[in-house]
User: Fold this.
Amino acid sequence: MTRPFVFINSAMSADGKISSIERRQVRISGREDLARVDRLRAESDAVMVGIGTVLADDPGLRIKSDLLRRSRVERGLPENPFRIVADSMARTPSTASVLGKGCLLAVTESAPSNRLRSLSCKSEIICCGRVSVDLEELFTRLYGSGIKRIMVEGGARLNWSLVSLGLVDEIYVYIGAMLIGGDGAPTLLDGEGYRENFPRLSLSNVQRLDDGLLIKWTLPQRRA
Ligand code: NAP
Assistant:
C-alpha cells in the first residue's frame, strides 16, 4: 500500500492520561508547546481526529498563527491543512467547529443517509468500510488525492487503530507537569491493547518545553 507519512501528536499528563475520567479536555500544554503544535499543523497536508475527540473537545483544527497561514498561501497551499474526522456513523454535530471548507468526514456504508445529507453541505464525505472506517483504504485514497503528510491529533481509540495497523511513522508526546489519574481516563493508546509482541520504539529526540518534556519516537516497522 502506498500511504501518506503519518505522525501522532499528543499531550499527556505525567501519569500518562490525555484527558480526564469524564473525557473532558484538559489544558496540558503551555504556550511554547501550543506554538509547536501550530507549526506541525502548518507543515502537514491534513490533520486528523476521531469522532470521540470532536464530541469531547469540538476542535477547530485550523492553524492559529496568521504568519504560518500566510506562509502556506505563499507556497501555493491552502491556508489550512485538510481536516479529517474518522466518523463511521456520521455523528459529527452539524454545529461542529471542524466542519466547513477543507473538512473531510470519513464515514462507512452504515452511516444513516439523513445524517450524510445534512452534513454533505458542510463537508466532503468519503465512504470507506462497513462498520468502522477502513483506515488503510482511507489513507490509500488520500495519498492518491495528494495528501502525503497527515498529523493525527487523537484521540486514544483512533491512535490505537492506526498504531496497531502499522500506519504510524512517528509519535510526538508532550508530557506536561500535571497529574490527572482515573482508571478510565484516556491514554495515548486505548483500544484492545497488545498482549504480546509489544512494539519497540526508537527514541529520536527529547526536549524540555514549557515546564514539561517533548519526546519524539519513531516506529521502525513501517508496514507499507
Ligand atoms: P477518538 O479516538 O477521538 O475517536 C474514536 C472514535 O472514532 C471511535 O469510537 C469510532 O467511533 C471512530 N472511528 C471510526 N473508525 C475508527 C477506526 N478505524 N478506529 C478507531 N476509531 C474509529 O475518541 P476517544 O478514544 O474517546 O478519545 C477522545 C478523548 O481523547 C477525549 O477525552 C479528548 O479530550 C482526548 N484527546 C486528548 C488529546 C491530547 O493530546 N491530550 C488529543 C485528542 C483527544 P464511530 O464508530 O462512531 O465512528
